[in-house]
Amino acid sequence: MFRCFFLFAFLPIVAFGQAKTDTIQVFSPAMGKNLKAAVTTPSSYAAESTRYPVLYLLHGGSGSFSDWHRKVTEPGLVGRLAEEYDMIIVTPSVGPSSYYYDSQMLDSVRYETYIINELIPHIDKSFRTLAQKESRAITGLSMGGHGAITLSAKHPELFIAAGSMSGVMNIDTRLWKVNDDFRKLRQDGQKAMLGADLTYDAPTFSTFTAVGLVSKIKANGLALIIDCGVDDFLIETNRQMHRLLLESETPHDYIERPGAHTWTYWTEALPFHLLFIDKYLKRD
């Protein structure tokens, strides 16, 4: 039903051709602004008429589209993986601490609408993608892990596989091992975007948080991988998600391994996510 791993070894680095990364701007009618994204294509893209599967790779809170290209501890990691798996990798930008959802309070926060209705159609129109669920996956780190799980749960028609690295599986900051000032800052931000009347406790988890969507995840049959470092301040939210998936008998891969909420951890985690996701992507 699930596979639980404690990983200590790292995948080998292999030399490949030269992938290409372009920065694009996509206008969001929902929010009335342009948003940047980076699109990495494998070297074969220039010479062939082939269409490619796509991975949407999401950044964390207060991050940007360039994080996965500039902050990883292995330079060129995204390009290497695009080459190795012969796929397109898209890293979009969203607002800080916006969690990839549509705010019920602020018109300026419509990032679910942006990703689902604006960015993905733009990528499929502008690049030679395999524009089908079976050839599209999504994963991300921290806030981006929350985004990947919630977006894929709400839109199973778009994704075949999803992942989370050190994800905020429950946006209830009572579970986070952080100082009081940080906790208050996050709680105030959530109230501004979502209102003050949401519940984050079982059995009435808010559907604005990943743990509130377990029933949808089970029904969707999505291929799912979740991992978190044992020293991460979000480890308890990931263990909570793992328990809920077990209780609902939802198949998933769950990994705990040494590490914290750092770019060293995410640099090591991303190749494992690609190894998992590639098993489910169709290339025709």
UniProtKB/TrEMBL annotation:
Species, as recorded: Algoriphagus jejuensis
Alphabetical keyword list: Hydrolase, Signal
One Gene Ontology term of the molecular function aspect: hydrolase activity
Pfam families given in the database record: Esterase
Coiled-coil regions, chain positions: none
Protein name according to UniProt: Alpha/beta hydrolase family protein
Source domain of life: Bacteria
InterPro entries: AB_hydrolase_fold (IPR029058), Esterase-like (IPR000801), Mycobacterial_A85_antigen (IPR050583)
KW Hydrolase (keyword) present: yes
Record's signal peptide: 1-19
